[in-house]
Amino acid sequence: MLTKIEHIGIAVSNLEEANKTYETLLGVAPYKAEDVESEGVTTSFFKVGDSKIELLGATHEDSAIAKFIAKRGEGIHHIAYAVEDIEKEMKRLKNEGFKLLNETPKKGADNKLIAFLHPKSSNGVLVELCQDIKK
């Protein structure tokens, strides 16, 4: 079951400049920056109350984020939802007819296991499922 919106991911061309913009906009500095090699991105996370914003900058020109920006420009890339059991949720959603972009969860940013749903199966929105990695 999806328990809450975990974060909103925003694709940016220049992460350093976007960090400055969002620091000014939100009145806080990012609490975390992280490279996610499997996705070809560097991320910055901002907290706004109980909500989070993730800025995503490409680390190479053939990454999914670089391709997204080339095709659509900067902007909202995905909405991430928190789940308690990502494998169970992936199975449920697949059985409901949603198309998974990955068949098994993978390690993502911010100490999460992640999986994505194809935007064509969710009204044009890339959906990310996130489960906290238990320490």
UniProtKB/TrEMBL annotation:
Residues in coiled coil: 76-103
Gene3D superfamilies: 2,3-Dihydroxybiphenyl 1,2-Dioxygenase, domain 1
Entry GO MF terms: lyase activity; metal ion binding; methylmalonyl-CoA epimerase activity
GO BP terms: L-methylmalonyl-CoA metabolic process
InterPro entries linked to this entry: Glyas_Bleomycin-R_OHBP_Dase, MeMalonyl-CoA_epimerase, MMCE/EMCE_epimerase, VOC_core
Protein family (similarity comment): Belongs to the methylmalonyl-CoA epimerase family.
Protein name: Lactoylglutathione lyase and related lyase
Organism the protein comes from: Croceibacter atlanticus (strain ATCC BAA-628 / JCM 21780 / CIP 108009 / IAM 15332 / KCTC 12090 / HTCC2559)
